[in-house]
Design the sequence.
């Protein structure tokens, strides 16, 4: 089963779909303005698209790894409080 990411814009809802050759149960929570992954070729997904309740979600960019910095020389102990 291939899932496609969409942005949902209909009323708050939930769906239980039978998918795949084995007709496995697939459940989705549909929240306005949130992304949802649904099987693109499923009849229910096609109905939501035709009702304009689903729009393709923008592609997810690869996570940015934090920059690695060399440890600086630090002094351990209490910091002066300025008094």
Sequence:
């Amino acid at each position: 089963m291939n899932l496609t990411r969409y942005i949902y814009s209909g009323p708050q809802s939930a769906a239980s779909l039978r998918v795949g050759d084995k007709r496995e149960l697939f459940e989705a929570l549909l929240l306005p303005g949130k992304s949802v992954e649904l099987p693109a070729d499923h009849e229910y997904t096609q109905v939501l698209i035709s009702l304009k309740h689903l729009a393709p979600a923008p592609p997810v960019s690869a996570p940015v790894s934090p920059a690695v910095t060399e440890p600086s020389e630090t002094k351990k102990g209490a910091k002066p409080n300025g008094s």
